Amino acid sequence: MTYPERAARRLRLPADDRSPAAARAAVRAVLTEAGLAELLDETLLLTTELATNGVVHAGTDINLTVAADSIGVRVTVTDYRSGGIDPMDMAMPEVTAEGGRGLLLVDRFASSWGTTHDATGKSIWFRIDRDPDARPAPRPAPDADHETAQPDLVQLAALLTIAPALQSRLPVDQLVTELLARCHDATAAAGGAIEYDAGDGTGAQILAKFGDVGAITLAVPLPLTAPATGKLLLAGEPRPSWRPLAELVAERIALAVQIDRMRIDEQRRSGWLTYLAEAGELLAHSLEEHLTVALIPQLVVPQLGRWAAVHLTGDQDLRLAALTHAEESELEQLRRRLEDAAPALAGALTTDGWTGMELPVPRGLDCIAVPLSARGSTIGVLTVGRHVERRHSSEERAVVADLAKRSALALDNARIHAERQAVANELQAALMPGSLPDVPGVSFAAEYLPATARRLPGSGPGPAIGTEVGGDFYDATELADHRLWVAIGDVCGKGAQAAAVTGVVRDVLRVMARDGRPLPRALELLNSTLLEQPGDMRYATIASALLDREGPGALTATLCLSGHERPLLLRADGETAWVGKEGTAVGLFPEVKVNPEVVRLGVGDALVFFTDGVTERRDGPAMFGHDRIARSVREAAGKSARTVATALLEAVEAFSPESPRDDIAILVVRCDADREQ
Length: 677
Prior knowledge:
Largest sheet: 5 strands, antiparallel
Number of strands: 25
Number of helices: 15
Distance between the termini: 102 Å
Strand content: 15-25%
Shape: elongated
Strand order of the largest sheet: 1-2-3-5-4
């Protein structure tokens, strides 16, 4: 459906800086005549962009056609760049393309638009229709005679007012350009520009301009918050109305720039907070000091600088522990400079009057240096090289300081963890036999995995030590009468308390066995000893045995169970049987019940002892159980004690992807032929 025209203008405009202003004047006149003042903001904006693209980028004269009807306006801008059709003109341009934002704005604000091409040039048209539900808001037009009339400042203020809906959708540079263009409409100045300096060291830049700004006759400062500064510049023959108009425009431009800067600052602060949170999470996951040290520079570069390094305090000096550089080819040169700077950094840490924020930077390093301090002590220095094009901002310095605190705490936690792990390793080692007996006719193998241990990928089966001392133990020793004594047990609890009870249980049993006491009597004395210990829940379950070698290829085991799991007898031919009679755990009741049982082993037979960490290993609701133990070791029947123990541990670990919830101890005793290994 078409509507009769209410007003129209057709102009031929030359390829110079004055043409966009003439095009705006034509649009304003048509819309005012047609009573479509509410469409003025968007139509002026798009006309300015297309006219500027035509005279600046195409470099030709342009034809402008403006036609308004009862519901909207159609504007067509034609340039006369000769040649064939450029395929790029048929597609939406990139945002960063020269002159490309004009079409992006047209696409965003126009009700419809399109292009036409012929042998002489290209036309771009757009149409903007009024909202049928919106009430028209007529705008007074400025006095067209700039030479003789004194402008009405109230009318000009309305002229310089851009609808909030349009302001919210325009990028700040487009908004500033539109405000400057309206200033030009009101003043008819020969030229104008907006000069802006963000105060961040990048220097002044031109946000928008029109016409010839070579001879500035009026400069009005933009009322910006420090450190930002700016000016509105006008060229041409000044009139009395220029200054109040320029001040009004300067205020509105400053407001637009300030709002945009606040938005950008908020986005940047939000980004830094996210960055610090993610960096803190990564640091918190690392409990290995060398991995933490290596991670810190990787978190810094390139977000906060071109390079970063970590120096750590030693016994007498400061040593370079880790560094990274955005340019790998510069790493070695940087390493030498940082190693040479270590004494100066160490001296800065001990200088009286140090504020605790940033350290003096040694000569030859263009960077910032921040101490790594945690829990009242300084453990190193973080140095961050400046960016290529600028120095660090105050905000970036604050982020570096915050990251240094998080890094120092992570390093200190890693050191504490390492110390704790070393103590746990030493204590755990003290609770286990240094080595198992090496005697003819009998071989031993053991595996131990505390509940908190983490086995490194690819390390294979074998002992693993965590940071918590486990409550399970095993022991084996040769007695004076050439018999052998073995035991495996599970003490209630974990940690230092369990370790104390484990030490008592192991030492008492070993002393009693070496003293020649029968196993039932040794267990009775151990029960009394535990009952005398202070505190509750100091009890243990134990499986122990005395081994007699009756000759080549024959072994007799006198087995006593004190509340412990029965061991598995694995015959050389793969037959299995659970052996032993149940008894009372030690440390619970004044009297213990012990039921010795004799088990005979031939060549290749093995007794497999274990703790409840094996049977109660869980995969969801399922437990490993006794049947899986028998199936796991049956393939290793007749093989060495080490093979049997390893097969069982591998099966237990593979049963569930979760870390063990309880300690796992395995002890295998195998009857060998004499000197069989």
